Input
Amino acid sequence: MKNILSVCVAVFIFAFASQPQAADDDKKWMPDASRGQSVSEQLCVNCHLVKHEQAGKVTAGVPSFMVIANRPGQSAKRITNALIQSHPPMPDISLTVHEIRDIIAYLETLRRPDSGKPLIEKGPLSKKKPNYPDQS
Output
């Protein structure tokens, strides 16, 4: 019984001791375009043209990532909204906040200079207050 109690106490202490480290790691997290490209190639490539040299077929009428990145008035809010709220013909996919921000970072690499302001600001986004997307 004493061993079981010792193990339970050790697990409890370990769980709470590791929480501040996880919070610190989240504060240091920054969006990464290569991770965003990887997620996009895994989840979006069946319908979207994700990169220039992509082989295979895509769904007719579905915009390429290049088109999405360079739409007039495009913003991180609009992209986030499209990824959070499923809409036909897009399937309902579950992405983490970090995956969404990584995809937006990848889309940023596809933006032309004349497309307007950057989709994301420089710096760790996790330090900012959540900015929930509008419905537009």
